[in-house]
C-alpha cells in the first residue's frame, strides 16, 4: 500500500492554491483540512480539494490530524501559528519569509526543539535542477572558486498591490522587497556561496505607499572573500531575477523571473578552463512549488529530513536583518554582530520610531 502524508493548509489566499495543487500532484497526500479566518476562503479551497474547512489553526488541530501543516498566511502570523502547530507535535511548512525577525526565528526554533514536529521553509528556487547542480558543483570546486557575484531582483509592484491591509506595514508584511521579494534570490545566492561576513547597504522609498523601502542595495563580503552586489526593487517595469557568479573557472548565470528551467542557466568557462557545467546536465526540473513540495513529501514519507529546514534559512534572515541594520544606521554590519540584544535582532526596523524611519528611507 502507498504511504499517504496527511497535510493541512492554514491561510487560504493566493499562494495556498499552489500548495494544495502541488501536494495533490504528488498523488501521495490527503488534504485533511483548510483553515482561514475568512470562512469563505477556507470553504472555497476545501471544496476544490474535497477537504474540510476550519475557522482557525486551533480548530483544525483539534479536529484533523495532519502530519504537516503548510502555513500560507501573511508573514506577520507565521511564528505564532508555527509555535501552535509544533506544540501539537506536528510538522510545519512556512511560506517565505518564514518569520519577521531573528527573535521570532529563534522562538520557533526553540518550539521545534521540544516538539516531535519539524519546521521547513518554502524556498522553491533551491529546488530546480539548475540550482541543485550549481550548489553541488560549486561546493565540490568543479566550477572554480567564486570571486564576484551579482544578485538582482528587479520586480514591479504597482500601488494597488499594497491595498490589502497587511501589505506595506512592518506588522503585517514585515519589510519591503528586501524581505518579501528579493529574499528568493538572496536565499539562492547564499545557498550557492555559503556564509557572508559583512554588509554595507542603502534602502530608500522612492514611490510606493509603504512604511519601509521600495528599493534596497547591498555590498556584501563573504567568508570566502568573494564579493557580491545585491539589488532589490519593486519599481522596475521590465522585470528580471538574476544571479551571476564569476569564479576562477568561469561565469555562471541564471536569468528568470518567478521560476527557472535549465535553459535559463548559462556557464561561460574562463579561457582554458574545463566546462563541468554542460557535462553535468540531467533531468530538467523547473524551480517551483511542485519541485520543492514533491521532494518534501518524498522526504517525509521516507523518514528523511527535508533539507530546506528553518535552521538552513537562518543565514538568509541574518542577511535581511543586516541589510536593514546597515541601511538604517549607516554602518557596516557583520554577521557575528547579530546576537540577542542587537537592536535589529528583535525587529527588522530596529525598534526605531516610524517618523524617524520615514526620514531614514527618504532618498
Ligand atoms: N513562495 C512564493 O513564491 C510566494 C508567492 C506568493 C506569496 N508567498 C507568501 O505566501 C504568504 C501568503 O501570501 P498570499 O499572497 O497568499 O496572501 P493572501 O493575502 O492572498 O492570503 C492570506 C490568507 O491568509 C488568511 N489569514 C490571515 N491570517 C490568518 C490566520 N491567523 N489564520 C488563518 N488564516 C489567516 C487570510 O484571510 C487570507 O485568506 C506570504 O508569506 C507570502 O510572502 C510566497
Automatic annotation (TrEMBL):
<dbReference type="InterPro" id="IPR036291">
    <property type="entry name" value="NAD(P)-bd_dom_sf"/>
</dbReference>
<dbReference type="GO" id="GO:0000166">
    <property type="term" value="F:nucleotide binding"/>
</dbReference>
<dbReference type="InterPro" id="IPR052515">
    <property type="entry name" value="Gfo/Idh/MocA_Oxidoreductase"/>
</dbReference>
<dbReference type="InterPro" id="IPR055170">
    <property type="entry name" value="GFO_IDH_MocA-like_dom"/>
</dbReference>
<dbReference type="Pfam" id="PF01408">
    <property type="entry name" value="GFO_IDH_MocA"/>
</dbReference>
<protein>
    <submittedName>
        <fullName>Putative dehydrogenase</fullName>
    </submittedName>
</protein>
<feature type="domain" description="GFO/IDH/MocA-like oxidoreductase">
    <location>
        <begin position="133"/>
        <end position="253"/>
    </location>
</feature>
<feature type="domain" description="Gfo/Idh/MocA-like oxidoreductase N-terminal">
    <location>
        <begin position="5"/>
        <end position="121"/>
    </location>
</feature>
<dbReference type="InterPro" id="IPR000683">
    <property type="entry name" value="Gfo/Idh/MocA-like_OxRdtase_N"/>
</dbReference>
<dbReference type="Pfam" id="PF22725">
    <property type="entry name" value="GFO_IDH_MocA_C3"/>
</dbReference>
Amino acid at each position: 500500500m502507498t504511504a499517504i502524508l496527511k497535510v493541512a493548509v492554514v491561510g487560504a489566499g493566493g499562494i495556498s492554491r499552489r500548495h494544495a495543487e502541488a501536494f495533490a500532484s504528488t498523488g501521495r497526500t490527503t488534504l485533511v483540512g483548510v483553515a482561514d479566518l475568512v470562512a469563505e476562503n477556507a470553504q472555497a479551497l476545501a471544496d476544490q480539494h474535497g477537504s474540510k474547512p476550519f475557522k482557525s489553526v486551533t480548530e483544525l488541530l483539534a479536529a484533523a490530524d495532519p502530519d504537516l501543516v503548510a502555513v500560507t498566511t501573511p508573514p506577520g502570523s507565521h511564528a505564532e501559528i508555527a509555535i501552535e502547530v509544533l506544540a501539537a507535535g506536528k510538522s510545519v511548512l512556512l511560506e517565505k519569509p518564514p518569520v519577521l525577525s531573528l527573535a521570532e526565528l529563534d522562538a520557533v526554533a526553540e518550539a521545534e526543539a521540544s516538539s516531535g514536529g519539524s519546521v521547513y521553509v518554502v524556498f522553491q528556487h533551491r529546488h530546480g535542477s539548475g540550482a541543485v547542480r550549481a550548489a553541488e558543483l560549486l561546493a565540490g570546486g568543479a566550477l572554480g572558486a567564486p570571486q564576484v557575484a551579482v544578485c538582482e531582483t528587479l520586480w514591479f509592484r504597482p500601488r494597488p498591490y499594497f491595498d490589502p491591509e497587511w501589505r506595506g506595514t512592518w506588522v503585517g508584511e514585515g519589510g519591503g522587497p528586501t524581505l518579501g521579494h528579493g529574499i528568493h534570490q538572496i536565499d539562492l545566492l547564499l545557498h550557492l556561496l555559503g556564509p557572508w561576513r559583512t554588509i554595507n547597504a542603502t534602502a530608500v522609498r522612492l514611490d510606493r505607499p509603504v512604511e519601509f523601502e521600495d528599493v534596497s542595495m547591498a555590498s556584501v563580503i563573504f567568508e570566502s572573500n568573494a564579493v557580491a552586489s545585491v539589488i532589490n526593487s519593486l519599481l522596475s517595469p521590465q522585470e528580471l531575477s538574476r544571479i551571476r557568479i564569476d569564479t576562477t573557472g568561469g561565469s555562471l548565470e541564471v536569468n528568470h523571473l518567478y521560476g527557472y528551467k535549465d535553459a535559463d542557466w548559462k556557464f561561460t568557462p574562463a579561457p582554458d578552463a574545463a566546462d563541468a557545467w554542460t557535462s553535468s546536465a540531467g533531468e530538467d526540473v523547473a524551480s517551483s512549488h511542485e519541485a520543492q513540495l514533491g521532494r518534501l513529501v518524498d522526504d517525509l514519507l521516507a523518514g528523511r529530513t527535508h533539507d530546506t529546514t528553518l535552521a538552513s534559512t537562518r543565514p538568509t534572515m541574518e542577511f535581511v536583518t543586516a541589510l536593514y541594520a546597515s541601511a538604517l544606521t549607516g554602518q557596516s554590519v557583520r554577521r557575528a554582530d547579530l546576537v540577542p540584544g542587537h537592536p535589529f535582532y528583535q525587529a527588522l526596523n530596529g525598534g526605531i520610531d516610524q517618523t524617524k524611519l520615514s526620514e531614514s528611507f527618504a532618498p
